[in-house]
């Protein structure tokens, strides 16, 4: 799920989207009786938004199109609050009579909902959709697709064009250049952070881990095992936490920075660079940095490379208990179509998951190019295991980062502690 104030939680604006995770219930939902009704009321749950009107207009257009093609069918759309979605889904899993037929859900919620038995497989329904492999994998568990990615959010490097011009800097194309530029900005303009980075910004740190060849965990035939304490992961953690120092972003001010606070810092003109999402554009445009920034992919260690980004976002899916399986799948496909993904981008700024839709939008909107390039270079995801919800809720990764930058633990000690906590959640 994208960590943003509207849906990922603030993973997803902290990231992610909106920042966005929730704990799904561990329960056994009642199953349908095999019925597949072709008439009646199709019940749909979508996430509410602070400003629902633009989203609602697009959805209403899709509903009108769907009803025109399906006689004797009505579509009842309910907008549910993101922060109470866990309880709503728990109730739906336990009581099919109150459950929707088609749903929107955060992609980080998927493992828990699948473990609870609440979602239907939709692999055959998604055939023909031009979804990239990385996005499909983020909705796939044990080889089965349980959702259609509806929109995606990735992060890239925002930088102040006026500051770069003043200091004769060029956009960094390697991690070494990134670090050098950050330190130069801090040295020449001490009122600014060079690169705003935070001890509580999980999705700002993970690209450094992934670029170094590390990962949160690896999957085997017996399940997930934490690898955040591998040599490669430790190298990435060190590269990130080394930025939270006096010569860039002092720990006294940056140790507790979340993704959301990082957005605020850059938008208010207090940082020369920041790792932000395509979904943070509106916030930056509303601040002092408006008109004085540009975006490039976050560079990796190898010159010219792109550091892998977390692919947050939301999916559309079909409830396993639905009495209208065919109708639910058809409405899901309609909302996920190129036509409505493009309309959702125009209305909400949601980056489409369909390659064709993104390509078309990129031709019209240059701002999207660095995010497209980031997706094309390959994205990553969190472990597709129900335990991830617990790991996220316990703030395992932020705690690890914060201990390192405040000197409470070494990289080795903190990563070992994090690995122990992760493995406990994976059991």
UniProtKB/TrEMBL annotation:
InterPro entries xref list: SBP
Keyword annotations from UniProtKB, A to Z: Signal, Transport
Keyword match Transport: yes
Membrane spanning stretches: none
Family: Belongs to the bacterial solute-binding protein 1 family.
PANTHER family, A to Z: MALTOSE-BINDING PERIPLASMIC PROTEIN, MALTOSE_MALTODEXTRIN-BINDING PERIPLASMIC PROTEIN
Name of the featured protein: Extracellular solute-binding protein
Organism: Dactylosporangium maewongense
């Amino acid at each position: 799920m994208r960590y943003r104030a509207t849906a990922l939680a603030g993973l997803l604006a902290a990231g992610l989207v909106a920042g966005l995770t929730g704990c799904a219930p561990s329960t056994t939902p009642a199953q349908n009786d095999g019925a597949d009704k072709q008439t009646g009321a199709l019940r749909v749950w979508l996430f509410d938004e602070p400003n629902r009107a633009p989203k609602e207009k697009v959805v209403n257009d899709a509903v009108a199109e769907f009803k025109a093609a399906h006689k004797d069918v009505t579509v009842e759309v309910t907008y549910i609050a993101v922060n109470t979605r866990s309880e709503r889904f728990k109730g739906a899993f336990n009581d099919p009579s109150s459950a929707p037929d088609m749903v929107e859900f955060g992609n980080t919620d998927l493992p828990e909902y699948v473990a609870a038995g609440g979602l239907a497989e939709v692999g055959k329904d998604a055939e023909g959709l031009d979804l990239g492999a990385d996005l499909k994998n983020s909705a796939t568990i044990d080889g089965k697709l349980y959702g259609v990615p509806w929109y995606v959010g990735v992060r890239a490097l925002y930088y102040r064009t006026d500051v770069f011009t003043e200091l004769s800097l060029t956009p960094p194309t390697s991690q070494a250049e990134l670090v050098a530029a950050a330190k130069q900005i801090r040295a020449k303009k001490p009122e600014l952070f060079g690169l705003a980075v935070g001890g509580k910004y999980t999705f700002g740190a993970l690209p450094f881990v992934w670029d170094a060849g590390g990962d949160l965990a690896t999957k085997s035939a017996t399940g997930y095992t934490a690898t955040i304490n591998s040599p490669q992961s430790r190298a990435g953690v060190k590269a990130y936490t080394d930025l939270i120092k006096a010569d860039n972003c002092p720990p006294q001010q940056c140790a507790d920075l979340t993704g959301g606070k990082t957005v605020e810092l850059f938008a208010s003109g207090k940082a020369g660079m920041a790792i932000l999402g395509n979904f943070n554009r509106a916030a930056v445009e509303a601040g002092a940095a408006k008109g004085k920034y540009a975006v490039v992919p976050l560079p990796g260690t190898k010159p010219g490379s792109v550091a892998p980004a977390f692919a947050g976002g939301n999916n559309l899916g079909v409830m396993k208990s639905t009495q209208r399986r065919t109708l639910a799948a058809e409405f899901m496909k309609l909302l996920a179509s190129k036509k409505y993904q493009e309309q959702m981008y125009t209305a909400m700024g949601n980056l489409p998951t369909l390659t064709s839709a993104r390509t078309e939008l990129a031709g019209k909107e240059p701002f999207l190019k660095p995010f497209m390039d980031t997706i094309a270079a390959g994205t990553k995801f969190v472990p597709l295991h129900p335990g991830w919800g617990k790991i996220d809720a316990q703030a395992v990764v932020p705690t690890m980062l914060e201990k390192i930058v405040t000197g409470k633990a070494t990289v080795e000690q903190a990563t070992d502690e994090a690995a122990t906590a992760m493995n406990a959640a994976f059991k």
